[in-house]
Amino acid sequence: MTLHSEIAAVTDRVIERSKARRRAYLALVDAERESGNDRPKLGCANLAHAYAGTDEQRDQLKAGHSMNIGIVTAYNDMLSAHAVYYRYPEQMKVWAHEAGATAQVAGGVPAMCDGVTQGYQGMELSLFSRDTIALSTAVALSHRTFEGAALLGICDKIVPGLVMGALRFGHLPMVLVPGGPMRSGLANKEKAKIRELYAEGKIGRDELLDAEIAAYHSKGTCTFYGTANSNQMMMEAMGLHMPGAAFANPGTKLRQELTRAAVHRLAEIGWNGDDYRPIGHVVDEKAIVNAAIVLLATGGSTNHLIHVPAFARAAGITIDWDDFDRLSRVVPLLARVYPNGSADVNGFEDAGGPSFVIRELLDAGLMHGDTLTVGKGGMADYGRKPEMAGDQLVWTEHGARSGDDTILRTADAPFSPEGGFRILKGNLGRACIKVSAVERERWTIEAPCRVFQDQAEVQAAFKAGELDRDVVVVVRFQGPKANGMPELHKLTPPLGVLQNRGFKVALVTDGRMSGASGKVPCAIHLSPEALGGGPIAKLRDGDVVRLCAETGELNALVDAAEWDARAHVPTPPPAIGTGRELFAMLRHHCDEAERGASAMLAEAGL
């Protein structure tokens, strides 16, 4: 199938814009490749230190003839998604031995849970934990005693951070190894309903806690289609997983065999063989565009409007929100997964999952098929579903239709002819909005605004009944420079309640909204942010704000002369406590949301 002309045009735009930086990046990859097989060049004392922690692999490591795989792990047992990694390293060492290789844990990276920190001070560390993870990945791989790497991570900032760090070692072959979602518990819509009842004071804390525990009940990724599970969809589309690895449940034979296959595959794509596939070549401009396409086709997380530009930059590639907006006009919405539907990711996987989406997009000419992947073939391999045939891992073709067309549809009969994102522009700056879960009649909201400095103030005003009207809730000084750009997911229940009461409601913020954001229109990631003079700092209570996803408009309807003359409100002092002061340097040096909100990349000149 011929590639859609607009997708080709956007890809050409990305390639042209990235030309100089991508050329410099590939020169680095080549230079590192030339000097990168360092183990034979290291001193004997250096090697002895590297091998001292292992007994069973020491003789094979000493011989130096086989690949040594570095395992970079985000394991901890406070995150359900990452608790599954506890036994992975010892299993992977066995599977590496089967393939004639060795494996060592190169290092760990931090992995915090936004679900735990939502609405509290720790969330202000969340976005910059991604840069910390990238730096930790670089530390792990800096010993240069590895010829390939397995990256163990799943959730929100962990996968983007791992990819950002890994791409600076672009000469190494690498595979992302997911752990899979927990099995379905309390239905997500029922969970959301109970949260709204609690927000209205109709049920107590005990009932709410019981419901939350019923939803988040075991090891594995949370089952809604938020940032973590959007990560997995994108890694499939970029060819960084074993095909179909995203959503096999933990503790199953299929999950184990997919991980085993990943280790075996790493041993096959090293630089001493004839199928060398370094991550710096796998992640090219087409792979980045593919990531954006599947995000749009599945109604994925708004957080990736920050993460995709960030990890693209780590590979010398520039993609911006206009590219996403253009792609969204031609990429159909093929999936309805909560919060954009009633099904969770297990239902999505049962209906066909990521491989069905990729098959449909490829067949319709809506995705690049001629990309390098870590799989044995090309992107077409990612359009087949992994299954166990007895003890054998096999990949099978999908049928013509999905297993449930209320969850997953073909490209010729989508839920919507367009994807789920729009860009908003106006005298308030540039923002993005996820509309895949918003009813069309709510795409345009025009109402007086109420301005807040943090989400706790919003919740207090809601409880006091001060927001029972048509209102645009504005929450400012939530950008990356101000306080690390926390998610404002705690606002979802009260805003949803106001909308249910019949009011016209919207949110405008220079902060983030979770990948779980749903039915309320939210203009987020507003740039420039309030700190430093962004126009959102001019807004006053009562100003009428117009948000229109149809026309891409975000304006304060204030007389132009008055608007130009109006002063910005004072900047609040930086918060301290919960370690937030330690991240001041990252806040101070980071760039804007559209470029990825990264201090690390900005300071590196990437």
From TrEMBL:
EC number: 4.2.1.12
Gene that this sequence comes from: edd
GO CC terms of this entry: cytosol
The Dihydroxy-acid/6-phosphogluconate dehydratase C-terminal domain, residue ranges: 407-597
Note describing how the cofactor binds: Binds 1 [4Fe-4S] cluster.
Gene Ontology biological process: D-gluconate metabolic process; Entner-Doudoroff pathway through 6-phosphogluconate
Keywords for the protein's UniProt record, in alphabetical order: 4Fe-4S, Carbohydrate metabolism, Gluconate utilization, Iron, Iron-sulfur, Lyase, Metal-binding
Lineage: Bacteria, Pseudomonadati, Pseudomonadota, Alphaproteobacteria, Sphingomonadales
Reaction(s) this enzyme catalyzes, per UniProt: 6-phospho-D-gluconate = 2-dehydro-3-deoxy-6-phospho-D-gluconate + H2O
Binding site for [4Fe-4S] cluster: C155, C222
HAMAP family: Edd
Function: Catalyzes the dehydration of 6-phospho-D-gluconate to 2-dehydro-3-deoxy-6-phospho-D-gluconate.
InterPro entries the record matches: 6-phosphgluc_deHydtase, Dihydro-acid_dehy_C, DiOHA_6PGluconate_deHydtase_CS, ILV_EDD_C, ILV_EDD_N, IlvD/EDD_N
Involved pathway(s): Carbohydrate metabolism; Entner-Doudoroff pathway
Cofactor(s) demanded: [4Fe-4S] cluster
Any one Pfam family match given in the protein's UniProt record, by short name: ILVD_EDD_N
Protein name: Phosphogluconate dehydratase
Family: Belongs to the IlvD/Edd family.
Domain Dihydroxy-acid/6-phosphogluconate dehydratase N-terminal: 68-380
MF terms (GO), sorted A to Z: 4 iron, 4 sulfur cluster binding; metal ion binding; phosphogluconate dehydratase activity
